[in-house]
């Protein structure tokens, strides 16, 4: 009888440190989530509060795990990461982490190996390991949330770029003349047309032309409300998702022509509006991408939902152990 290899039962503690929530899970080698929890991200200026929250979460998971041990900690953050150094380079929503050697700090407190990754990169790895991209080797993952994130996997390998800042798909320019300013300092980025924030802004801007819209008079519009209105056939909401789909399709056509991917996986909250923007997105891809490439690529919805980053983080830690 083969002795049980202890590494088969080891768990990875994966944490997704968002601007609002700290989500964490223990994940086994097969990608099964064994336990999970969520809390608010400590809104402290002091990085120690964040470290303390993560350390407390790992200890709680260690207490709950019976036979299985946590063998590594893998953390994803919303920002640029120096993976080799285990340092956060720049996290616009958590500026206290800028320049901080987060992996080393966690590792010394927990006596476990710890790694860091960018959230959108991890989501791409998660989708290829356990989600829509299973079986593929070259995929692009686009996350349409408050902003627009991206992850690129080429021939099975995450493409981070020389400085760890590759795949900023949200900051590809799709409109040089519109003048819409982006948080990155540029103008006309995909993010200002295809994010949840963009959908709300575009609805506000277009609303005077649609006096009959059910969205009139609502100052607290969210992308979800606009989607709901679109499902009911509201002309304003339909026009906004049409525009959003056109811009997204232009961005995807550029990516397809440059990278010739097998699959593009689209996730994030805005993907709930899929049936409203899908047709317009595909139309642009058909018009603008090379026919051979456009026929080849599958453009699909993400499958892992909010767990994509956690699963990707776990996968990246497991690969390091092997
Ligand atoms: Zn930008």
Task: Tag the structure with descriptive keywords.
about 325 residues, alpha/beta, five-stranded mixed beta sheet, 10 helices, 12 strands, globular, binds zinc ion
Spans where pLDDT lies below 50 across 5 or more residues: none
**Helix/strand/pairing category:** alpha/beta
Count of alpha and pi helical runs: 10
Radius of gyration: 21 Å
Question: Would you write up a description of this structure?
Answer:
The chain has 322 residues and is α/β, with parallel strands linked by helices. The protein is built from ten helices and twelve strands. The protein has helices at 47-64, 102-110, 119-130, 191-194, 196-206, 223-231, 235-259, 274-288, 291-296, 308-321, and strands at 11-17, 21-27, 33-40, 70-77, 80-82, 87-90, 114-118, 139-144, 148-154, 157-158, 263-267, 298-301. The strands form three sheets. It has a five-stranded mixed β-sheet, sandwiched between helices. A five-stranded mixed β-sheet has the order 10-9-8-11-12, sandwiched between helices. α5 crosses α7 (235-259) and α6 crosses α7 (235-259). Bound molecules: zinc ion. Zinc ion binds at residues 171, 182, 184, 186, 189, 191.
